[in-house]
Amino acid sequence: MTMQMVRELGEAAHLAARALALVVPEVKNRALMAIADALWNGRAEILSANEIDLAEARLQHHSSAVLDRLALDERRIEKMAAGVRQVAALSDPVGEITRMWPRPNGLLVGRMRVPLGVIGVIYEARPGVTADAAALCLKSGNAVILKGGREAIRSNRVISSLLADAAMGSGLPKGCVAFIDSVDREAVTHLLQLSGLVDLIIPRGGEELIRAVQRTSTIPILAHDKGLCHTYVDEGADLVMAEEIAFNAKVDRPGVCNAMESLLVHERVAPLFLPRIVGRLQEAGVEIRGCPRTRALVQGIVSAAEVDWDTEYLDLILSVKVVGSFEEAVAHIAAHGSGLAEAIVTADHSRAMRFLREVDAGAVFVNASTRFTDGGEFGMGAEMGISTQKLHARGPVGLTELTCEKFIVMGDGQVRDSTK
Amino acid sequence: MTMQMVRELGEAAHLAARALALVVPEVKNRALMAIADALWNGRAEILSANEIDLAEARLQHHSSAVLDRLALDERRIEKMAAGVRQVAALSDPVGEITRMWPRPNGLLVGRMRVPLGVIGVIYEARPGVTADAAALCLKSGNAVILKGGREAIRSNRVISSLLADAAMGSGLPKGCVAFIDSVDREAVTHLLQLSGLVDLIIPRGGEELIRAVQRTSTIPILAHDKGLCHTYVDEGADLVMAEEIAFNAKVDRPGVCNAMESLLVHERVAPLFLPRIVGRLQEAGVEIRGCPRTRALVQGIVSAAEVDWDTEYLDLILSVKVVGSFEEAVAHIAAHGSGLAEAIVTADHSRAMRFLREVDAGAVFVNASTRFTDGGEFGMGAEMGISTQKLHARGPVGLTELTCEKFIVMGDGQVRDSTK
């Protein structure tokens, strides 16, 4: 796709966004329900496109993880449609007056939530993201430009055209769901140059994608970076609880960003705790890479290299370290954590409070699994991803995080006198 | 300054920020009071440095506007110190739990306000920004790296060293107020490469500075762009009120970003309104550049060129356009406004509501002067500038906007079952 073609998509989306910002909730919700129906009714078409994508991916010898992310079946399409209906059911953030206050001169000053405008979503193999991302953007009043991974191009082409047709057919402005139908990387570069037309870029994918986008984009980014999550088992912790939480954080779904990658254990509880948890994790197929003190307590563990403390395995592998103090655990997290989610298991109230305050991450947990780091689990409804940056939104990105607040001011003739 | 030197400042600030984030309000406030005292007690030193800056600027034939921004006197230093004391008196945003809600599984999920980390502030001739910016950053728990304009280098050097000494002397961590003591542009480029150490860059200055920072920075930016503000006088508006508001928006302080640059007048009221407001503005020394319909109604006005509708004069110049409808006014604002502040003068309730909803700007006014676009006037206390971007903060940037919210989650052993 040439720069000119991408720019035209951007201009159409920009125009559409102005109109979409003013569409009432009922119309947006009706469009989302129509989109859900269109996905389900178009499942045969989606699945046959997906089959070709899968065949091609197998020919390219993609990993089983990629193939799994790419593959669709009726159940997954049903889930996709259900996800869109769920978004329709969420309350509409647009137009909400979050606060309003009077000034001594009689002015009423308030803050009104409004859409961001046009959101570019750049993602990888998962075709489900196409419907997801579009639904969240439309509901929050934003036009969306979708750019999926090359592996899923045929699936995404079908899905996005079902989305766009259903949206337009329900009265949403033309151009509000755009799809960059291209497998070359140039197209992404073009998209990232559309500042003034595109208001936000959300890269959803691996570290490499994010870095590339950060280097190139002239548009603000909401980055979902890697998840290097720790669980710290404190001195005096309930070790049964600690075992459940640590096991869950590692094993429940090891391939996702909120899974635990490093376990930190206070030296006082390590002799009792480590043999138990390591045994249980190993039974579940987890490879343990331990610090010297861990290896002294449990036999037959490989040694953790320096690089292990900074590695997001996304797999059944865990690095384990014995620490001498709460402070050492917090310092280790500050040095190696990715700022996504961090947990402490403790029975001590003041250390729980300190952990909440002192650990700088999108989500900080006391006595719960980092696996809960999720918009749905937090009660925010569906999510666009999890932001590891500090600006604009941190942690799960829901509908609200796809809007911004403008000031509104109501007066009856007030003027300002600078000489006063 | 070499890259290595700037990086060292960044590393020190990064370390300082971790400590500063945990400093209690009392200590921060004591430090701010000490800073205010230090500024006042150091006034002789500041003024003699400022005199050399001024002499140099005169030699370089800088404009009187630059000289005015650069010049300090006892009154301005007193105001600077008073500004810092005012910031000390504001309520501390750090640690605030903005919301907390229970989940069905017993988890308590909340949002806690925390500092951003390290903020780099890049500004131009005004040495008062040095104290201002530092006070706002410190109060919100952020370390600050200051990079002022070359014209004010001697004044800024003295001021920032007074700030840093007073901060450290009051128990704030070393390195929390850093000053890039350099007049070369390379130093800015170095600063903009410190992603991972610096969390936010705030460029305060002209369009050229902002564009350069946007092009170069790998760090997120909070941009204070230009202000191209409109006042639209609606059909049926109270013309006495309209005259007061328009006159104030243009004349009260024409050199600032929230001053009006373009006046839009509905054709129904133009014949009555334009002669009055134009006469009064001309008496106040304002040059009027009108559209053809304006020139037909008032004699002796120069013609507005296309470029006038996109020009931020920052001076006693005003472009004036007669529009055929409310919709034309809103469309003109969408096409030419800079997203800072826009105002309508109207007696019609439904058009007032529509203007608030349909106009996309940081601050949207009904029946009041755009000159109120200011953190102080909005009741937010002092401000770091006015953001014209949509991400993170829009409109006046106060203390709250220099923080972010992380999620905190308190449980008693909850784990997640993905199979459910």
Automatic annotation (TrEMBL), chains A, B:
<feature type="domain" description="Aldehyde dehydrogenase">
    <location>
        <begin position="317"/>
        <end position="379"/>
    </location>
</feature>
<keyword id="KW-0560">Oxidoreductase</keyword>
<dbReference type="GO" id="GO:0004350">
    <property type="term" value="F:glutamate-5-semialdehyde dehydrogenase activity"/>
</dbReference>
<dbReference type="GO" id="GO:0005737">
    <property type="term" value="C:cytoplasm"/>
</dbReference>
<dbReference type="Pfam" id="PF00171">
    <property type="entry name" value="Aldedh"/>
</dbReference>
<comment type="function">
    <text>Catalyzes the NADPH-dependent reduction of L-glutamate 5-phosphate into L-glutamate 5-semialdehyde and phosphate. The product spontaneously undergoes cyclization to form 1-pyrroline-5-carboxylate.</text>
</comment>
<dbReference type="InterPro" id="IPR012134">
    <property type="entry name" value="Glu-5-SA_DH"/>
</dbReference>
<protein>
    <recommendedName>
        <fullName>Gamma-glutamyl phosphate reductase</fullName>
        <ecNumber>1.2.1.41</ecNumber>
    </recommendedName>
</protein>
<dbReference type="InterPro" id="IPR000965">
    <property type="entry name" value="GPR_dom"/>
</dbReference>
<keyword id="KW-0963">Cytoplasm</keyword>
<feature type="domain" description="Aldehyde dehydrogenase">
    <location>
        <begin position="6"/>
        <end position="286"/>
    </location>
</feature>
<keyword id="KW-0028">Amino-acid biosynthesis</keyword>
<dbReference type="InterPro" id="IPR016163">
    <property type="entry name" value="Ald_DH_C"/>
</dbReference>
<comment type="similarity">
    <text>Belongs to the gamma-glutamyl phosphate reductase family.</text>
</comment>
<comment type="pathway">
    <text>Amino-acid biosynthesis; L-proline biosynthesis; L-glutamate 5-semialdehyde from L-glutamate: step 2/2.</text>
</comment>
<dbReference type="GO" id="GO:0055129">
    <property type="term" value="P:L-proline biosynthetic process"/>
</dbReference>
<keyword id="KW-0521">NADP</keyword>
<dbReference type="InterPro" id="IPR015590">
    <property type="entry name" value="Aldehyde_DH_dom"/>
</dbReference>
<dbReference type="InterPro" id="IPR016161">
    <property type="entry name" value="Ald_DH/histidinol_DH"/>
</dbReference>
<dbReference type="GO" id="GO:0050661">
    <property type="term" value="F:NADP binding"/>
</dbReference>
<keyword id="KW-0641">Proline biosynthesis</keyword>
<dbReference type="InterPro" id="IPR016162">
    <property type="entry name" value="Ald_DH_N"/>
</dbReference>
